């Protein structure tokens, strides 16, 4: 049985390196042997690492971490007195840049094999980019910079950007937890996992598609936008922001302070919306059947929605949903939607997201 190996890389510089300079500066390669299911710990300061998949044509055994760096980088490997995971070797590799000529442009490209756990901590002006890899787990903590993931598949992804933003292009697959502080935003193409959690302070959340058993989206002051959400249990929370959902399938619980909610419901068994000060607009698919409990200081605007005197949609159906909507200082509007309306609305959201 292979032992897993914990590796620690450290890179320091002063500014990010433009890609046109990278080809000239990253003139050295340093290789480190690794064993399957090991741990790569990367600590960077004022340096922007780019983590990519290992070139399997050059390294068919997938037993190397390859670091491309400038000629002034100093590499050291030593032992330490901690064991990150039971059974792991306490092996550490540090990487620091001492090249005065190129230090202000230093960065590094790190090739890693699949099934290697990642633990990344970035300080200063140190953007983190990860593309086309499949780590067993991926933990990223960034103090001032941004995090960009492209086509990443993992069992668990935990991402925190204190003063930066998080962007996912392509897809991020695995149990996902993303959190930003201050004004950092979250923008994602596709998130898929059993659990998907996103939390921001002031920055907006903008996702094209989310697929998960449990989905939690929350923001204090940012708007929350999603073209498509599919989940068994969807929770949305905001104190001072609007919520706009192009299409949702699953049970929804939404709580808003000051802000409007707009959502198209394709399928649900239980829908609960509470809004302190704001309007609630629901588009209900023609297949949605259920009991309505609506509370607003203004008359309910129901467009093309057939309700009886007991506020039931299509009474007599065996499978019904519980739809509860309360707004203390706002209006409630209902509209019956069809698939054409949903497609058109998603197209409009994609155009706004591209701007």
Tell me about this structure.
The chain is mostly beta strands and 355 residues long. It folds into two domains: 1-135, no CATH class; 165-355, no CATH class. It has helices spanning 19-25, 339-354; strands at residues 5-12, 28-33, 39-45, 48-53, 64-69, 73-79, 89-97, 107-112, 117-123, 128-131, 137-142, 147-161, 166-180, 186-200, 205-219, 224-240, 243-258, 261-267, 270-277, 280-285, 290-295, 301-303, 312-313, 321-327, 332-337.
Descriptive tags:
355 residues, mainly beta, 2 domains, 25-stranded mixed beta sheet, 6% helix, disordered N terminus
Following the backbone from N to C, one meets helices and strands in this order, namely EHEEEEEEEEEEEEEEEEEEEEEEEEH
Low-confidence stretches: 1-5, 12-17, 20-24, 78-104
Give the mean pLDDT. 80
Count of strand segments: 25
Could you say which structural class the secondary elements and strand pairing correspond to? mainly beta
Q: Helical percent range?
A: under 10%
Beta-strand residue fraction: over 45%
Termini separation comes to 52 Å
* Structural domain tally: 2
Indicate the radius of gyration in whole angstroms.
24 Å
Biggest sheet statistics: 25 strands, mixed
Shape: elongated
Number of helices: 2
């Amino acid at each position: 049985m292979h032992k897993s190996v914990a590796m620690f890389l450290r890179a320091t510089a002063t500014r990010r390196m433009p890609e046109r300079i990278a080809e000239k500066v990253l003139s050295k390669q340093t290789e480190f042997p690794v064993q399957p299911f090991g741990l790569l710990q990367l600590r960077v300061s004022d340096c922007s690492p780019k983590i990519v998949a290992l070139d399997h044509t050059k390294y068919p055994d997938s037993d190397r971490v390859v670091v491309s760096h400038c000629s002034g980088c100093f590499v050291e490997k030593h032992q330490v007195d901690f064991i990150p995971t039971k059974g792991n070797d306490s092996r550490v590799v540090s990487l620091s840049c001492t090249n005065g000529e190129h230090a202000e442009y230093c960065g590094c490209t790190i090739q890693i094999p699949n099934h290697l756990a990642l633990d990344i901590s970035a300080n200063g002006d140190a953007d983190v980019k990860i593309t086309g890899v499949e780590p067993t787990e991926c933990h990223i903590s960034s103090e001032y910079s941004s995090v960009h993931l492209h086509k990443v598949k993992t069992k668990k992804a935990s991402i925190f950007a204190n003063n930066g933003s998080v962007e996912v292009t392509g897809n991020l697959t695995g149990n996902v937890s993303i959190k930003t502080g201050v004004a950092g935003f979250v923008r994602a193409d596709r998130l898929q996992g059993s659990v998907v959690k996103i939390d921001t302070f002031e920055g907006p959340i903008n996702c094209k598609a989310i697929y998960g058993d449990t989905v939690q989206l929350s923001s204090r002051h940012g708007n929350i936008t999603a073209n498509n959400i599919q989940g068994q249990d969807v929770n949305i929370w905001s104190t001072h922001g609007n919520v706009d959902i192009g299409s949702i399938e699953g049970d929804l619980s939404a709580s808003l302070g000051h802000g409007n909610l707009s959502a198209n419901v394709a399928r649900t068994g239980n829908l609960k919306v509470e809004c302190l000060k704001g309007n609630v607009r629901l588009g209900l698919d023609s297949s949605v059947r259920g009991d309505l409990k609506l509370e607003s200081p203004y008359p309910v605007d129901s467009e093309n929605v057939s309700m009886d005197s007991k506020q039931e949609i299509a009474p007599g159906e065996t499978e019904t949903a519980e739809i509860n909507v309360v707004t203390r200082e706002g209006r409630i509007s209902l509209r019956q939607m069809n698939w054409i309306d949903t497609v058109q609305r998603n197209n409009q959201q994609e155009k706004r997201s591209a701007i």
